[in-house]
Amino acid sequence: MSGTLVLVRHGQSDWNLKNLFTGWKDPELTELGVQEATAGGQALAETGIKFDIAFTSELRRAQETCRIVLEQVGQSGLETIRDLALNERDYGDLSGLNKDDARAKWGEEQVHIWRRSYDIPPPGGESLRDTGARVWPYYLTEILPRVLKGQTVLVAAHGNSLRSLVMVLDRLSKEKILKLNLATGVPMVYKLNADSTVASKDVLGDMSGAH
User: Fold this and answer.
1) How far apart are CA 76 and CA 38, in angstroms?
2) 3-state SS string over the chain?
3) What does the pLDDT look like over 153-169, one tens digit per residue?
4) In the CATH scheme, what is the code of domain 4-10+29-90+129-204?
5) Distance (Å, rounded) from C-alpha 20 to C-alpha 31?
6) Cα–Cα–Cα angle for 138, 12, 199, nearest 5°?
């Protein structure tokens, strides 16, 4: 008996709008971000999906997205587990900096390496591999067992914490995952086989707007 895993990246946050490195900082959703989360929830509602449990990070933008999605599917108040393991990648010394200012300080090439390499972290922060090193064990121990029991599980989190999950689910190489951007507020619906491999994947929305 396989279950369903739904991944949703939070809607646009105030700092996304201002082109700032966000990481573990805790800005709220913008008006557009609320609209994106609402649209994602409505797309899920149209499928008739019902969740057994939800997971989100310790950061408000993901929690708010989770709340809005559950509201749209008529499940406000569903048990929701918050955990640091699902937080966005920690950008360390870059957190709160404008991306253009960071380029001016460290150089375009160095900032690009920090943003787009798999295993080179910014000063005081995490690489994508580091992010995966906390996301994967949490997924294996807390989320996957529920899906394998046949439950339908929502995970509302962040671009990099979700990319590390998609990397495993879609069996992407280090090179391919670095090129993947997840659209904000767009649900990815995975049906899993009993051996935890992916039976099907459905993206509920147009991915061309990914950023």
Assistant:
1) 13
2) CCCEEEEEECCCEHHHHCCECCCCCCCCECHHHHHHHHHHHHHHHHHCCCCCEEEECCCHHHHHHHHHHHHHCCCCCCCEEECHHHCCCCCHHHCCCEHHHHHHHHCHHHHHHHHHCCCCCCCCCCCHHHHHHHHHHHHHHHHHHHHHCCCEEEEEECHHHHHHHHHHHCCCCHHHHHHCCCCCCCCEEEEECCCCCEEEEEECCCHHHCC
3) 999 999 999 999 999 99
4) 3.40.50.1240
5) 17
6) 45
**Catalytic residue list:** 10, 88
Q: Please write the tens of the pLDDT for every residue from 177-210.
A: 988 989 999 999 999 999 999 999 999 975 444 3
What is the reported pTM?
Answer: 0.93
